[in-house]
Amino acid sequence: MLNFIIRIVIIYFTLQTNFAFSSTQNKIIANIENQILTSYELENKIKIILFLSNQELNQNTIDMTKNLAINNLVNYKLKKEEVLKFNITPDQRALDDYLKNLYLKYQTDAFGLEKIFKNQDLNLELYLDEIKTEVSWQALIFKLYNDKIYIDDNELNKELNEILKEQKNIEEFKLAEIEILIENNSKDNDKLNELQKQIKLIGFKNAAIKFSTSSSAINGGEIGWVNLKSLSLNVKNLINEMKPGEISKPLIQSNSLMIFKLLDKRKFDFNNDDVEKIRKRIIIRMKNELFKLYSNSHLSKLKNDAFIKFKN
Fold first, then answer.
1. Phi, psi of 203 (to 5 degrees)
2. Pairing of strands 251-252, 28-32
3. Are strands 308-310 and 28-32 parallel, antiparallel or unpaired?
4. Contact criterion met (CB below 8 Å) for 73 and 41
5. CB 205 within 8 A of CB 221
6. Alpha helices in 212-265 (DSSP H)
7. Fewer beta carbons within 10 Å, N or C terminal of the chain?
8. pLDDT at residue 100 is higher than 60
């Protein structure tokens, strides 16, 4: 019931708010637990989303991005409140890796990125705080749920043995992904329709940057080469017959929806030196799937229990 009220308030707010950035006053527009959300933060978030996804800044794209920006900021504020509650600081190595990918994307360094954001009239400090919060959130999920991450050796060995049976012409797929959170209600269809519309309009890569909640979003959703046999059965069945350039049907899981794009595929001859590498990839994939599940579930619980009030 609370979620329903929150959605109604957000819809009302977004319909009533007209963003003319040049005249927007900085004011508090929402209270999210002990965090506040200002009109300046919302303006900056909209502009950053459009900039990172290579979209033109105009009233039409602003209107189309408002709901996404608000939802992202609500998630960010809830995550920030939670990491502060548990006194979690970002892992420096994970933070550095994220920033290196960002610098690589724009072929620059910290100074150059600051200049790029300044030239686009974007607040880099706010954006970096979102990154730090996300890295801290991942550390929190690891702390809370690591003891629950159990890999079944029988399941692992079964997958590995299936690969070992075919020691020649093993297929590898180069994939990109988009993951969005869903609430298992009628709004999910609206989210999916908007995502598919944006994929056609701005391309898969830019749509991944704009919409995806996965850490691969910074790379346009690209997750690199993966062994077909090391993928989960659901994903394997979804992409097995795809051709390079094709986009999959949506894969709906408990609280998220995923769409894949096949960038390329290749075959190679398997040898015994690859056994341990493939075993490690399977373990990483299984752990990542479980951590994603716990992360999304934890955030959903926070949303259900949170005090979120938008001001008129």
1. 90, 155
2. unpaired
3. antiparallel
4. yes
5. yes
6. 233-239
7. N
8. yes
Rounded to whole angstroms, how far apart are CA atoms 185 and 1?
Answer: 12
Using the predicted structure, report yes or no on whether residue 118 has a pLDDT greater than 60.
yes
The residue type at 76: Y
Q: Mean pLDDT in the chain?
A: 87
| β partners of residue 170 | 268
244/242 Cα distance (integer angstroms): 7
Structure tokens at 52: 């990172």
Cα angle 149, 137, 146 (rounded to 5 degrees) comes to 15
Q: Is the pLDDT of residue 17 over 50?
A: no
Contact 210, 202 (CB under 8 A): yes
Total count of residues recorded for the chain: 312
Structure tokens at 125: 């400090």
> What's at 127, amino acid-wise?
Y
Nearest CA to 126 among 37, 247, 1? 37
Nearest alpha carbon to residue 38 among 47, 48, 28: 28
pTM for the whole thing?
0.83
Contact 52, 210 (CB under 8 A): yes
